[in-house]
């Protein structure tokens, strides 16, 4: 069975490069560089870039993921407000952590048993303490905002980690990918 790899974000050019679209933007860049027709890193994959807005992401998965076995071969790249920019975490079978796109997928495919590549988007102090926005309006403004020029080095680091995670997932499996990516940070 092949992997289904999805990058969450909002459709439309105005959202390209925003924090909320990091999953979608990273997947498009990695697929462009490493992919070939129907394959990524030499393995058969289906790339999914939902054409729905983030909060309705689940609609794109209903027809594609119809069994628990298929869900276990699903990888979702997403922005993560609870991680600092530059950090990447893999999780499987976990709650949404309040991410509306992930909530929508949980409801659509009726399981939490899929891989999430959580890509940090929040600023942090030099000691690593998160400085994420609070309040609904501030959070919305932040996630729909573009990355700053000063954040490009951390973005590159995160994109490399995501690329490595995807390669390990499709070639070595979930456990190996999780262990290696988490040990690199």
TrEMBL record:
Single GO MF descriptor: tRNA binding
Signal peptide as annotated in the record: none
Pfam families: Pept_tRNA_hydro (PF01195)
UniProt cross-references to InterPro entries, sorted A to Z: Pept_tRNA_hydro, Pept_tRNA_hydro_sf
Protein name: Peptidyl-tRNA hydrolase
Keywords recorded for this protein, A-Z: Hydrolase, RNA-binding, tRNA-binding
Organism annotation: Candidatus Adlerbacteria bacterium RIFOXYC1_FULL_48_26
